[in-house]
Amino acid sequence: MSKENVEVGEPVRRIFAAFNKRDWGAFSAELDPEVEYAPVEVHATLRGREAVAQYAERWLEDWDTFSAEAEEVESTPAQDRALIAVRLGGIGKGSGVEIYDRFFWVTELRGGRLYRISEYTDRAEALEAAGLSE
Asked: How confident is the model at residue 79 (pLDDT cuts 50, 70, 90)?
Protein backbone atom coordinates (compact mmCIF):
# COMPACT_ATOMS: atom_id res chain seq x y z
CA MET A 1 0.00 0.00 0.00
CA SER A 2 1.03 3.57 -0.48
CA LYS A 3 2.38 5.59 2.38
CA GLU A 4 0.46 8.50 3.82
CA ASN A 5 0.15 11.48 1.55
CA VAL A 6 0.47 14.60 3.69
CA GLU A 7 -1.93 16.41 1.35
CA VAL A 8 -4.67 13.87 2.11
CA GLY A 9 -3.73 13.17 5.73
CA GLU A 10 -3.70 16.73 7.00
CA PRO A 11 -7.33 17.69 6.26
CA VAL A 12 -8.42 14.32 7.65
CA ARG A 13 -6.53 14.84 10.91
CA ARG A 14 -7.78 18.43 11.17
CA ILE A 15 -11.42 17.43 10.66
CA PHE A 16 -11.23 14.84 13.46
CA ALA A 17 -9.48 17.35 15.75
CA ALA A 18 -12.29 19.85 15.07
CA PHE A 19 -14.94 17.13 15.59
CA ASN A 20 -13.44 16.18 18.95
CA LYS A 21 -13.40 19.85 20.04
CA ARG A 22 -16.93 20.37 18.67
CA ASP A 23 -15.55 23.26 16.61
CA TRP A 24 -18.06 23.19 13.76
CA GLY A 25 -16.49 26.17 11.96
CA ALA A 26 -13.11 24.42 11.75
CA PHE A 27 -14.88 21.14 10.93
CA SER A 28 -16.74 22.71 8.00
CA ALA A 29 -13.60 24.48 6.76
CA GLU A 30 -12.05 21.08 5.93
CA LEU A 31 -15.01 20.19 3.70
CA ASP A 32 -15.48 21.17 0.08
CA PRO A 33 -18.65 23.30 -0.25
CA GLU A 34 -20.16 20.49 -2.36
CA VAL A 35 -18.98 17.63 -0.12
CA GLU A 36 -20.72 14.27 -0.45
CA TYR A 37 -20.72 12.06 2.66
CA ALA A 38 -22.17 8.55 2.70
CA PRO A 39 -22.31 7.32 6.33
CA VAL A 40 -23.05 3.63 6.77
CA GLU A 41 -26.03 4.01 9.08
CA VAL A 42 -27.88 6.56 6.92
CA HIS A 43 -27.98 4.59 3.63
CA ALA A 44 -28.02 7.89 1.76
CA THR A 45 -25.57 10.56 0.70
CA LEU A 46 -25.46 13.84 2.60
CA ARG A 47 -24.55 16.81 0.42
CA GLY A 48 -23.00 20.12 1.42
CA ARG A 49 -21.04 21.38 4.42
CA GLU A 50 -24.12 22.30 6.43
CA ALA A 51 -25.75 18.88 6.05
CA VAL A 52 -22.55 17.06 7.06
CA ALA A 53 -21.89 19.33 10.07
CA GLN A 54 -25.52 19.02 11.23
CA TYR A 55 -25.31 15.24 10.94
CA ALA A 56 -22.13 15.20 13.07
CA GLU A 57 -23.75 17.43 15.71
CA ARG A 58 -26.89 15.23 15.84
CA TRP A 59 -24.71 12.12 16.09
CA LEU A 60 -23.16 13.45 19.30
CA GLU A 61 -26.53 14.03 21.00
CA ASP A 62 -26.69 10.35 22.03
CA TRP A 63 -23.29 10.34 23.76
CA ASP A 64 -22.01 11.63 27.09
CA THR A 65 -18.51 11.44 25.66
CA PHE A 66 -17.40 10.58 22.15
CA SER A 67 -14.23 10.96 20.12
CA ALA A 68 -12.80 9.74 16.85
CA GLU A 69 -9.34 9.82 15.33
CA ALA A 70 -7.64 8.80 12.12
CA GLU A 71 -5.37 5.89 13.00
CA GLU A 72 -4.07 5.29 9.52
CA VAL A 73 -4.09 7.16 6.21
CA GLU A 74 -3.18 5.21 3.06
CA SER A 75 -3.12 7.09 -0.23
CA THR A 76 -3.88 5.65 -3.63
CA PRO A 77 -1.06 5.65 -6.18
CA ALA A 78 -2.68 8.60 -7.96
CA GLN A 79 -2.70 10.45 -4.59
CA ASP A 80 -6.27 11.65 -5.17
CA ARG A 81 -7.95 9.22 -2.80
CA ALA A 82 -7.15 7.62 0.52
CA LEU A 83 -8.30 4.92 2.88
CA ILE A 84 -8.65 6.22 6.42
CA ALA A 85 -8.90 3.81 9.37
CA VAL A 86 -10.89 5.59 12.09
CA ARG A 87 -10.90 4.61 15.77
CA LEU A 88 -13.89 5.80 17.76
CA GLY A 89 -14.98 5.54 21.35
CA GLY A 90 -17.65 6.89 23.60
CA ILE A 91 -20.06 6.46 26.48
CA GLY A 92 -23.76 6.32 25.65
CA LYS A 93 -25.96 9.01 27.14
CA GLY A 94 -28.23 7.54 29.80
CA SER A 95 -27.04 3.96 29.32
CA GLY A 96 -23.42 4.48 30.33
CA VAL A 97 -22.43 1.80 27.82
CA GLU A 98 -18.88 2.19 26.54
CA ILE A 99 -18.28 1.56 22.87
CA TYR A 100 -14.97 1.35 21.04
CA ASP A 101 -14.88 0.45 17.38
CA ARG A 102 -13.10 0.96 14.09
CA PHE A 103 -14.49 1.91 10.71
CA PHE A 104 -13.08 3.13 7.42
CA TRP A 105 -13.45 6.15 5.18
CA VAL A 106 -12.54 6.32 1.53
CA THR A 107 -11.96 10.00 0.79
CA GLU A 108 -11.32 12.18 -2.22
CA LEU A 109 -9.92 15.69 -2.09
CA ARG A 110 -10.80 18.67 -4.22
CA GLY A 111 -8.88 21.90 -3.76
CA GLY A 112 -7.25 20.54 -0.58
CA ARG A 113 -10.61 19.85 1.08
CA LEU A 114 -12.58 16.65 1.62
CA TYR A 115 -14.92 16.30 -1.34
CA ARG A 116 -16.21 12.73 -1.19
CA ILE A 117 -16.34 10.56 1.93
CA SER A 118 -17.69 7.02 1.82
CA GLU A 119 -17.90 5.03 5.04
CA TYR A 120 -17.33 1.28 5.45
CA THR A 121 -17.31 -1.18 8.34
CA ASP A 122 -15.29 -3.75 6.41
CA ARG A 123 -11.64 -3.03 5.65
CA ALA A 124 -11.51 -5.24 2.55
CA GLU A 125 -14.54 -3.49 1.07
CA ALA A 126 -12.98 -0.09 1.80
CA LEU A 127 -9.67 -1.14 0.24
CA GLU A 128 -11.47 -2.25 -2.90
CA ALA A 129 -13.45 1.00 -3.08
CA ALA A 130 -10.22 2.98 -2.74
CA GLY A 131 -8.48 0.92 -5.42
CA LEU A 132 -5.93 -0.42 -2.93
CA SER A 133 -4.95 -3.92 -1.85
CA GLU A 134 -3.33 -5.48 1.20
From this structure: low
